[in-house]
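Human: Here is a favour to ask of a fellow structure person. Comparing notes only helps if you start from a blank page. I am asking you to supply a protein in sequence and structure-token form. Write it directly below this note and I will take it from there.

Assistant:
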Amino acid sequence: MNNSSVNTARLLGAGLRALLVLTLVTGVLYPLAVTGITQGLFHDRANGSEVEADGRVVGSSLIGQSYDLPPKNGRQTPGPDLKWFQGRPADGLGANSVNTQYRLILSGATNLAADSGAVHGTCPAEPEDGTLCARVLAARAAVVRDNSVPGYAVRPSDVPADAVTSSGSGLDPAISPQYAGLQAHRVATRNGLPVARVEKLVEDHTEGRTLGFIGEPRVNVLELNIALRELTAKR
């Protein structure tokens, strides 16, 4: 065997050994070490910030979910189940057309500009379908209609921005205290509860700004609805 063949074999052997060592270190040892550390120090976050109720996982505190009724005859989209607090719109979520066994959530924004459908910076009374103005006005009309109950009328000016716009990800799990409070009368009426008790529930689940200055006050919709379910069960 000449020197060229020997050198080639030696280089191939060294490359193979390096591949095996790096595969062991980066593909086995490192993932096991990171998994062990995260499970030991950040168990809740490492597992997706799961929220449990009645001994089972019902969602994540980081991902919003819908509270809808099954679609009625002749309708393709479900309507909101108005006995629960509703989250923000999720207009940016993509549809899953590949895996039909599970309804996957695809994160994304609407990509509509702030002036989409606007004329001179203002939304017209009848904006073009598919524009941001059209979506916002339709969502505002639905919020006014759904949350106006006997003795409590919601005005369009009462509707906060997060009630009619989706977040950048479309997966925002929280709403503003203003939007939660606006829904309290409807939730109380639908569940046969005193309004004051439902408003206290909202107050108890309102979180302040992170570290006192980051973000805005918020209410986690999933955790609020779990508390509402417990309250109605006690009743």
In short: Residues 89 and 165 are 6 Å apart (CA to CA).
